Amino acid sequence: MRVLHLLDHSAPRRSDYSRRAQALLQGLRAHGVHTVHLTAPGQAAGGDAPGWHFYRTRMPLREERLGPALGAAARTAALALRLRQVARITRPDLIHVHLPTAHALAALPVARLAGLPLVVEAERRAGTAPAASPALLSWLERRALAGAQAIAAGTAQVRASLRADGLGGGRIAVIPPAPDLAACRQPAASRPGLAPAGLEGAPLLAYAGGPAAEEGLDLLLAALGALRHRFPALRLVVAGADAALDERPGAGAVRGHVVFTGALSYRRAADLLPRADIAVFPAMRSAHLLAPSRHLLNAMAQGCAIVASDIPCHRELLVHGHSGILFRAGSCGALFDAIAGLLGEPRRLAALGAAAAAFVDSRRSWELTAARYRRLYERVLAETGSHSRKAKPNRL
Description:
By secondary structure, the chain is α/β, with parallel strands linked by helices. It folds into two domains: about 1-180 and about 365-390, Rossmann fold; about 190-360, Glycogen Phosphorylase B (Rossmann fold), CATH 3.40.50.2000. It is built from 13 helices and twelve strands. It has helices at about 15-30, 65-90, 105-115, 135-145, 155-165, 215-225, 250-255, 265-270, 295-300, 310-315, 330-345, 350-365, 365-385, and strands spanning about 1-5, 35-40, 95, 120, 150-155, 170-175, 205-210, 235-240, 260, 280, 305-310, 325. The strands form two sheets. A six-stranded parallel sheet has the order 2-1-3-4-5-6, with helices on both faces. A six-stranded parallel sheet has the order 9-8-7-10-11-12, sandwiched between helices. α6 links the parallel β7 (about 205-210) and β8 (about 235-240). α6 (about 215-225) crosses α11 (about 330-345) and α8 (about 265-270) crosses α9. The two termini are about 20 Å apart.
């Protein structure tokens, strides 16, 4: 089986995206899938990573002068032409469009012309169309998804959202994402602290994510202000976000007790999470938040003790009281009680972290993700009879 993978332009260089893509591709190779790799137009400079070859797509000439909408159309056209060339050279059995979903706009006409089945990964959040003409692009992306033989969704919530838009039906496969690093459990004694000098033994919370209201940082800061009355030395490190504390509600109550690291890659933020006593994921209920943060998966893989809101995508990963503590989303009082309860019983932290790491190891590895994609490819090829296409005239 030969699969042509359509990837973001950052796939060949060192990035969070490339590490995830290469982990999946390596897993597929281990399952006997021959992989071919094409990257979309972009500014990814440098050579290929050792052991990998990527066909590249050049940026259209003078693309920057066309404006956002025409520029996006020019990149899509360039990608479609390059995809047709690569498909003609490599003769794949199937095309797999990785995130971003917008690349399916280029892949759909090529797949139809060549008689190739198309598998498309759906975005992990609703309403994520690019800024240029978002309504039109969203409509076009839905058309591209509707033309695919199969859609891969990261969670049951993403699948439900697609079905609510009239897409997919039984063609949507739930293939959960894997973390950015292998599951492991660091002994607490080996974790270097992040507290200021003289406060090394003080309790420490960690938050990884952005400053957007739906991610719950303001809720956590409000809870921290109340928690300090019971735990005066309590500190919070905000990993991966760059936000001015003074601009946020309730800043006065926590000033001097919060550290912002600034922007970090997912992998570097993952290194900070297990240094805290508790990793907190207070995301609010939102129509746009359909999949868990990758930071949560990385925290679980690292064996962190986790407090998280009870939104559906968190309940898919965490069992309350066993692999994490879930609290009522949006409730500052419930978040206070969850954190205070764990800080008051620190002996529970190690058991929660060990259960979280065991779940990731057994249910969310890249090996399992690759096996799920292999089964999806086999199903699509069996349904479309595409292995017999090579006996037909090549319309590329």
